[in-house]
């Protein structure tokens, strides 16, 4: 047990102030308690006298609309109170979406489909979370869509997905992950395979639209879509395609006027484009921190969080028991392509793999599809990780959240890897 005494600090926040802190040191824990007044963390209200725990990697902002007293116990790397925040502007956006939801409810129509866009590290995921939390606090049931394959807020990185939000995010664990709809893309950025990205985005958009049709409450609550930070060149065209696929009504552009003006120029008139300033608190993340947080997401998928541990299973499957596919075949010169085939088509071609040492540590998506034709357009049941390949015995050892048997024998290779150090 550590004999080191924990540092205790008390902060008195005036109305509209924000206490920001970061926990960086490994194995460090910081405890936060609301002593009096009202406060929230990214849209989720703090319960008075309850202690919240934050571990290494946490970047937190405690905002108060009315003033409060906060106690922070433990070693933070940065901690300060900010008087200037864009929270009033974000709250006005929520109010505008809420008006659209009220109209939609009255006329039994679809509520607002809003998309957050902007470069990396401007707070897109954070504003998405704030807007979802505010909506659900008004008893709405919006759908959260995450198109950012880099971080994987709904499932693991390399995927896109949708989740119906029924209660505010937990301060330390995020949104409850009940029955998310997840599509495997298999790369940590859209660039390596934009054709495939476009297909999975359209597929997700169609499924989300179907869900809006069948649930009245969700239909009027609408959808909030988070996107990745790739906004230049084909990344920008990709954004336009995604906006079209989801039939968005509102696009909120964080921090970049150029992107805002391009969207005003290129989107149809009925789509409202809104410019939002970035919060001064948003922390920039280096490549290595992004990579660490991707690892952390995958580890949490298999092993859970300190508060909610999971115990994954490890089992063997024989080579013939599974079919492992890779999406995207090596490119062929135009002269070698069959008549009518475009050079781009190879990017969505399925290649059946013979299990080999190259699969070691790779993530495999367990497809819901029953035949080869539907693999790309099917959502996935979950993920396993290849922890051993034994060529002699013709077996693959898999780390899996569920015990044997696999729900399907069709597996799809992801570029993402996970080193299981447990
Ligand atoms: N007001 C704030 N105070 C302190 N930290 C903040 C604040 N807003 C956001 N952050 C932190 O900054 C980090 C980056 O924010 P966020 O993930 O929302 O950015 P992003 O634009 O979605 O990034 P990316 O493009 O990489 O997905 C997060 O760790 C988040 O917790």
UniProtKB/TrEMBL annotation:
**Locate the Clp1 C-terminal domain: which residues?**
310-420
Domain Clp1 P-loop, residue spans: 118-304
Major localisation: nucleus
Question: Which cellular compartments is it found in?
Answer: Nucleus
Q: What molecular function does GO assign, one term?
A: ATP binding
Record domain Clp1 N-terminal: where: 13-104
Listed InterPro entries: Clp1 (IPR028606), Clp1/Grc3 (IPR045116), Clp1_C (IPR010655), Clp1_C_sf (IPR038238), Clp1_N (IPR032324), Clp1_N_sf (IPR038239), CLP1_P (IPR032319), P-loop_NTPase (IPR027417)
Q: Which GO terms describe its cellular component?
A: mRNA cleavage factor complex
Name of a matching Pfam family = Clp1
Can the keyword Nucleus be found in this entry's annotation? Answer: yes
Q: Where are the transmembrane segments?
A: none
Binding site residues for ATP: 18, 59, 121-126
Please provide the Gene Ontology terms (biological process) for this protein.
mRNA 3'-end processing; tRNA splicing, via endonucleolytic cleavage and ligation
Keywords associated with the record:
ATP-binding, mRNA processing, Nucleotide-binding, Nucleus
Q: What does the function comment of this entry state?
A: Required for endonucleolytic cleavage during polyadenylation-dependent pre-mRNA 3'-end formation.
Tell me the protein family, please: Belongs to the Clp1 family. Clp1 subfamily.
- Name of the protein: Protein CLP1 homolog
Q: What is the lineage of its organism?
A: Eukaryota, Metazoa, Ecdysozoa, Arthropoda, Hexapoda
């Amino acid at each position: 047990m550590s004999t080191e005494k924990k540092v205790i600090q008390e902060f008195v926040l005036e109305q509209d102030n924000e206490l920001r802190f970061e926990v960086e040191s490994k194995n460090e824990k910081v405890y936060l308690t609301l002593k009096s007044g009202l406060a929230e963390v990214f849209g989720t209200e703090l319960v008075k006298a309850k202690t919240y725990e934050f571990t290494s990697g946490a970047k937190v902002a405690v905002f108060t609309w009315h003033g409060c007293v906060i106690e922070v116990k433990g070693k933070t790397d940065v901690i300060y109170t900010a008087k200037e925040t864009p929270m009033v502007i974000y709250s006005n956006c929520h109010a505008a979406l809420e008006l659209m939801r009220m109209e939609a409810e009255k006329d039994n129509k679809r509520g607002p489909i809003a998309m957050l866009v902007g470069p990396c590290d401007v707070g897109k995921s954070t504003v998405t979370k704030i807007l979802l939390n505010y909506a659900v606090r008004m008893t709405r049931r919006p759908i959260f869509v995450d198109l950012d394959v880099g971080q994987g807020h709904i499932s693991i990185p390399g995927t896109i997905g949708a989740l119906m939000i029924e209660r505010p995010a937990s301060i330390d664990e995020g949104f409850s992950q009940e029955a998310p709809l997840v599509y495997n893309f298999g790369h940590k950025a859209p660039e390596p395979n934009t054709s495939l990205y476009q297909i999975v985005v359209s597929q997700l958009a169609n499924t989300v639209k179907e869900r809006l049709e069948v649930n009245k409450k969700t239909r009027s609550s609408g959808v909030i879509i988070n996107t990745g930070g790739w906004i230049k060149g084909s990344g920008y065209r990709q954004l336009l395609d995604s906006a079209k696929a989801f039939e968005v009504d509102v696009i909120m552009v964080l921090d970049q006027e150029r992107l805002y003006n391009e969207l005003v120029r290129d989107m149809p008139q009925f789509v409202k484009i809104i410019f939002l300033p970035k919060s001064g608190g948003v922390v920039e993340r280096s490549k290595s921190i992004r990579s660490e947080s991707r690892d952390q997401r995958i580890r949490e998928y298999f092993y859970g969080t300190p508060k909610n541990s999971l115990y994954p299973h490890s089992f063997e499957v024989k080579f013939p028991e599974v079919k492992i596919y890779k999406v995207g075949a090596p490119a062929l010169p135009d002269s070698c392509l069959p008549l009518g085939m475009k050079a781009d088509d190879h990017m969505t071609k399925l290649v059946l793999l013979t299990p080999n040492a190259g699969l070691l540590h790779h993530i495999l998506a367990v497809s819901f599809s029953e035949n080869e034709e539907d693999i790309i357009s099917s959502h996935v049941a979950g993920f396993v990780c290849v922890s051993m390949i034994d060529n002699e015995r013709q077996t693959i050892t898999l780390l899996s959240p569920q015990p044997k048997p696999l729900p399907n024998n069709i597996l799809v290779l992801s570029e993402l890897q996970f080193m299981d150090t447990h």
